[in-house]
Design a protein that fits this description.
Helices cover about 50% and strands about 20% of the residues. It is α+β, with helices and mostly antiparallel strands and about 575 residues long. The mean pLDDT is about 80.
Amino acid sequence: MSDDDARSSGTQMLIPQMQLDQLLAELQNRLSAVMVTRDRVHSLLNAVVMIGTGLDLETLLTRIVEASMDLVDARYGALGVIGGDGELERFIPVGLDDEAIEGIDHWPQGRGLLGLLVKDPRPLRLRDITDHPESHGFPRGHPPMRGFLGVPVRVRDTVFGNLYLTEKAGGAEFDEDDEAIMVALATAAGVAIENARLYEESRRREHWLSTSDEITTRLLTGDGLDTVLELLAARVRPLTDADLAAVAVPEPGGERLTVLASDGPRAAEVRGRTAPVHGTPVGRAFRGDAPIVIDVSWEDGASAPLLDGLGLGPALLAPIGAGDSARGVLVLGRGASSAPFPPETAQMLHTFLGHAALALELAEARSHAERLSILEDRDRIARDLHDVIIQRMFAIAMSLMGCVDRITDAAPASRVRQAVDDLDDTIRQTRSTIFALQHMGEGRRWLRTRILEAVGAASEPLGFSAGLRLDGPIDSAVPDDVGEDVLAVIGEALSNVARHAEASRAEVLVHVDEGVAVAVQDDGVGLPEEGRRSGLRNLADRAARHGGTFTAERRPEGGTRTVWRVPIDEDGLG
């Protein structure tokens, strides 16, 4: 075989070998690609399982960003949540340390390239961010970024937000496989977000219902309005993520609203503040039938006096009730840099406050029914006392008087007369009690009650309880200015007994007919011959102002008796 033939034969044998090597290399490359694809699919499945565990929404959103960065080897990642107004309401970054985050001037607000994804929610992949015409650059302090991959996250048919990934490892570009992986992960993320939101919504509704039941129970079991409103503010504030909660109620006349209850770090500063109903946001909420959302930092202090100077921004003002049945306004506020209250919070709060207003009406109706029942009982008791007891006592007194003339022994006759006098006195006291029963609970502090309190307050300095007799139409016949002097006379007279008389017993009599008489007597050492009498002069001056008299004298049996009398005109008696 010639050399040429040998070379030709060797070449023919080498060609199949080369083709086999190429086929083997291609097969190896394909196997490597399959292995890579398998690994990425496994990573995707692991990521889907990871983001599907747990139902806390805040934790879930961060976990989605971290899983996305691991799948495509991105250095930085973020999730922008789209608000009801179509702009980014939240931005969750991953890959920056705290120092880097603090150095950034402001977070993206949904404009420029990120706004393009909000307006046109389709995957977007770029080799260099700065080359895109929609790019507006980065805020001051933001790290430089080039490669970009953005994918929308949908919850059913609504775009919840967008995933943003930048700076692939090694300076490589994001490819089609990266985009496909992210689209798949975003689909799984949408399902996980929906589940977390549904769970969070059910928990929130459960808390609202629990709070509504608690408020209703406290109202219907007799707790005071102030206590229930404080509880209302304390329960609603954490449910709405508010920094301040306050309840403003209308003043008598309905022209102004006053904060009666509040909760939060600066609650003490807002409690007691007032605002006019006319010309203020809180007044519009009170007169309206739906919550009002404002930003305090944009309002003039005069238009928002309840929240001025507290460093608040977003505020939610919700009426408690609606129209003529409105009971007040619940005011919620967040810090100046906080996100506004979402519409679902306003809607839930409106429903809750509607239930609270109904509970307030039921509590008022129950209170009125109880008050009416008490008044009816008092009227019945007063009628029984007048129609039965007084008549029987009067008949007994008349019967005894008819027997006096037939008693020949002076001592028994005297005792019978004394019994008749005692019965007459008891009849007068009973009539006074009847009058008090008929006029109790009419919205004012009656003079009879205040006299009882004044005599009771003197028990401690006296060292014993003074006796008290009240006779006549004290509450209806005594003018207010005379009533104030009556209280002062009783207080001064009992004070003198406590300081100077060394008494073991004291009695007070207040009698009203054509005038007012206040008599105070004790069993002490009597009036001193010498000494200061400025207190007695004060009592005499009080009587003289009303054209009356005042006397103070020693009692024959020991002690002192003071009598203060002033006339009452016919208008006072009428």
